[in-house]
Amino acid sequence: MNNIHKTPTQLTTDRLLIRPFTPEDTDAFFALMSDREINTFLPWFPLQTRAEAEQFLEERYLSRSEEPDGFHYAICLKTDNIPIGYINVDVGESHDFGYALRRDCQHKGIMTEAALAVLEEIRKAGIPYITATHDVKNPASGNVMKRMGMTYRYSYEEPWQPKNILVTFRMYQLNLDGRKERVYMEYWNRYPVHYIEKDV
Known about the structure:
Elements: E1 11-12, E2 16-19, H1 26-33, H2 50-60, E3 71-77, E4 83-89, E5 97-101, H3 110-125, E6 129-135, H4 139-147, E7 151-160, E8 165-175, H5 186-190, E9 194-195
Antiparallel strand pairs: 1-2, 2-3, 3-4, 4-5, 6-8, 7-8, 7-9
Helix pairs in contact: 1-2
Organism: Eisenbergiella massiliensis
Protein name: N-acetyltransferase
Keywords: Transferase
């Protein structure tokens, strides 16, 4: 890293406010994280109670807002500043770029708009690359990755916990430091079933 970066107070785009979560966002967060369809492709079960949402919000977002090189954002429309989704960038070696968006806000370019704004902050922070993965059954997520400039590198099968199902993921990567040849190989090395698909 070139410098120590903390999540900015707020990013803005044409339609969006992209900001850290606050305790006042619990109800909106619960609505997002309790939606069974949205959580089909996320690594946890839908939340069942507001208390679960409050705990999840604290552990995953509120307690991490000051994390060095952390990017943990609520995605909000400018019209009401209520969270409709989130973006996370892992601070570990994968620099995994994760996201979710409320169903009624999908297919409107909102996630791409938010992702590109956060990507600019990632560049400023000197992070050398980002990765992202999506279930092959969720190609719309892969389309967001492509619109960010990420490229497909490989696929792998993972026994996914806690859901205890076998999922085939596609791994995308964007190198930000000019090292175009770099490929993050952790998933390839960890899971024995891996391959490169054609025409992805």
